[in-house]
Design a protein that fits this description.
6-stranded antiparallel barrel; 18 helices; alpha/beta; 31% helix; disordered N terminus; Rossmann fold; Elongation Factor Tu (Ef-tu), domain 3; 3 domains; 11-stranded mixed sheet
Length: 565
């Protein structure tokens, strides 16, 4: 594409102007069929083109009654171009003054889609993505009106959830197509303090309202969402999760029980594999399993595992090193006796409770409470990634093995996703990173949708964000994060992305599969009881309060010591 200022515009050819016509009440209004002419096309390329806009005309529209027309010509706003009997919609990405023509703006635009023209009004209807016929240089550029946008954003009968109002209007509702959004994953991005948690709660509440028999699992690392979903969901934490340790696969067992590195790690893992298979073989549940492996989710006793490790060590001759066996046995004994791990490694979790566990976590049936909030905030930090890995893998494995059954699609929402799917520069291999990356790549084939919520998209593993078909971006303050999101977004949204640093709190740019065209939305306000507990503390007010500090400290110490919340 040539440089913006390289066109030689004939001086004799003026830009199109608005031709006023008298209305019935005597005022001057533009013809409805023609709309507001603001410029013309000067260059066409496959995905984007260049147009010139008249500064004076744009200035005259600033006082227009229609807020969408007031925005005409601004970066992030839309324009329309007639091609035959269709209207082509484009988004303004960049602007600059023309080098030699005063009062002329040269703007780069990205094509969004096209719609048919209503003969009487000239408005757009039956809008669809993609472009079948391009305009030619010299085609007139018109301002888009609120009536046009209403047609573009109008639901075409697909299931959708309304989340707010399309900027800059105050009456066009911004909606997300649920099937398209969940079918190809979605990501909600935004710096701390932009209202990200409340926005996540809003979207999930709307989905729950639409599908009260749905199946949603949310990983909540800060305990923020428990209060928000107590009315339409189930909350699980260290007190009631009761995640059986034997549901871990072999790799997850190694993450918990093997602490060594290098060559020693491989030796420890080999010993654990042999002893674990033997322990599972002693289980009654293994009797009906034709091909028992170390990954089979079969109940076994931790005491059986330590006994087998002890016996194997007893069989060694004097010259063989017993250190690997001792390391494994002492680590298993340590975890068994640590009350912090009781939610997972309690002796009470040896029964075959797999069916009951999956039923409660996956909400099968949902009974009007379609969302499970998994509060991992009180879990020991060293085991949290493994817990998230086990839960995520159970979702994926269930979907694989239930492929021949009536479909029950699931949505897995991961808050603080950069913790669990970090890029290669931050962390090495981990089971949680691998399973979430695999769900991002393959989940939709099996009816598993992934929702990623993060404040640091640039810390996410390479390629994961690009697997998200719908991206919802709030304000991002970091330049690296902004660049990362721009690279993942489709071409037509680039103009919107330039406004990401300028978004207000609780404003979001939506683009991708879940919306007809990229939109900027002012989000709805959630009822108090549906909001997450993520309000920022008001230091100036809270530091004025005093009294009762001794009792506060006693209560906190009691909870602290008992590791309860």
């Amino acid at each position: 594409m040539s440089d913006m200022g390289s066109h030689n515009f004939p001086a004799a050819r003026p830009l199109p102007v608005v031709t006023p016509t008298p209305s019935t009440d005597g005022s001057q209004t533009p013809k409805r069929a023609e709309g507001h002419k603001i410029g013309e096309v000067v260059e066409i390329a496959g995905s984007g083109s260049k147009v010139i806009l008249d500064v004076n005309i744009l200035g005259s529209l600033l006082e227009h009654a229609d807020p969408t027309v007031q925005m005409a010509g601004q970066v992030g706003s839309q324009i329309k171009i007639r091609v035959g009997q269709t209207w082509l919609l484009a988004n303004i990405r960049t602007q600059k003054l023309h080098d030699t023509h005063a009062g002329v703006i040269v703007a780069a635009v990205d094509f969004l889609g096209e719609g048919d023209e209503e003969r009487l009004t000239g408005h757009i209807y039956n809008f669809r993505r993609g472009v079948t016929r391009y305009p030619t240089p010299g085609s007139v550029v018109y301002a888009v009106t609120t009536a046009d946008l209403k047609q573009v954003y109008a639901s075409d009968g697909r299931a959708n959830i309304e989340i707010g109002t399309v900027y800059p209007t105050d009456d066009i509702r911004g909606a997300l197509y649920v099937d398209a959004m969940l079918g190809k994953h979605f990501a909600l991005l935004g710096s701390t303090g932009t209202g990200k948690s409340t926005s996540a709660a809003l979207i999930l509440h709307r989905i729950c309202d639409l599908a009260p028999e749905g199946h949603i699992i949310m990983i909540d690392p800060h305990g923020e969402y428990s209060a928000a979903f107590k009315g339409n969901g189930k909350v699980f934490d260290v007190n009631n999760l009761n995640l059986p340790y034997w549901l871990m696969n072999f790799r997850e067992h190694c993450e918990v029980f093997v602490q060594s590195t290098g060559d020693e790690k491989q030796m420890d893992c080999d010993i654990l594999a042999k002893c674990l298979l033997a322990a599972k073989g002693k289980s009654q549940a293994a009797a009906g399993v034709a091909k028992l492996t170390v990954d089979s989710p079969v109940p076994y006793l931790l005491s059986d595992l330590t006994t087998i490790i002890q016996n194997e060590m007893g069989k060694l001759d004097k010259a063989t090193n017993t250190a690997p066996f001792m390391r494994l046995k002492s680590k298993i004994d340590e975890i068994k006796s640590d009350p912090r791990y009781a939610f997972m490694f309690s002796g009470m979790l040896v029964g075959d409770t797999m069916a009951a566990f999956l039923t409660k976590i996956f909400r099968l049936p949902a009974e009007g409470k379609p969302i499970s909030i998994i509060d991992v905030s009180a879990m020991p930090s060293e085991i949290t990634p493994t817990v998230v890995a086990v839960l995520s893998r159970l979702v994926f494995d269930y979907a694989i093995w239930a492929k021949s059954e009536p479909k029950r699609p699931m949505l897995l929402v991961c808050e603080e996703a950069h913790r669990y799917i970090p890029n290669d520069n931050i962390a090495g291999e981990s089971s949680v990173r691998d399973i979430l990356s695999r769900i991002a790549k393959e989940g939709r084939k099996y009816g598993v949708s992934l929702g990623l919520i993060t404040q640091r998209p640039s810390d996410l593993a390479e390629g994961v964000l690009s697997q998200c078909g719908t991206i919802l971006s709030m304000r991002l303050n970091n330049d690296r994060d902004q660049a990362f999101v721009k690279a993942a977004m489709p071409e037509g949204a680039r103009g919107f992305l330039d406004s990401i640093p300028a978004l207000r709190n609780r404003e979001v740019i939506c683009c991708g599969e879940g919306v007809a065209i990229p939109i900027r939305v002012s989000l709805d306000t959630l009822a108090e009881e549906r909001r997450p507990a993520s309000e920022d503390p008001l230091f100036s007010e809270l530091w004025r309060e005093h009294g009762g500090e001794e009792e506060i400290i006693q209560r906190v110490i009691k909870r602290w010591r008992s590791q309860g919340r």
